[in-house]
Amino acid sequence: MDPFLKKSFGLDPKRSYKVIEREDVGKFVHIFNHIRLKVYVGLLVIQLRGEISDILPEEKKEVPWKCVEGKALASLDLTPGVKKVYLMVQKLKQSKIARNSPSERKLKKPRK
């Protein structure tokens, strides 16, 4: 993942960002025409060090990514594969919230 981030976004793991969370989300088969692709989905949460302008080289005028609020994603024209990935990540986040909520935690009763 680190070489991909460096090549695509110019992010150096030692200088540009700190990994907050890295987790495998799952996999699914995506069929496009007659081609079957197995897609492996991972969640990577990073915290940038410094400003975005400090990270991107001067010659890069276009940013290869876009920040979008969750509410706005419903109105975007996303491909079926991207929608599937988004739903998988949301499901993972919801399951984490459910596991960590006080109502879901059950106290273990001591054995007699």
Automatic annotation (TrEMBL):
Gene Ontology biological process terms, A to Z: base-excision repair; mismatch repair
GO cellular component, one term: nucleus
Signal peptide: none
Record key words, sorted: DNA damage, DNA repair, Glycosidase, Hydrolase, Iron, Iron-sulfur, Metal-binding
Gene3D superfamilies according to UniProt: Nucleoside Triphosphate Pyrophosphohydrolase
Gene Ontology MF annotations: 8-oxo-7,8-dihydroguanine DNA N-glycosylase activity; adenine/guanine mispair binding; iron-sulfur cluster binding; metal ion binding; oxidized purine DNA binding; purine-specific mismatch base pair DNA N-glycosylase activity
Cofactor(s) the protein requires to work: [4Fe-4S] cluster
PANTHER family, alphabetized: ADENINE DNA GLYCOSYLASE (PTHR42944)
Name this polypeptide is given: Uncharacterized protein
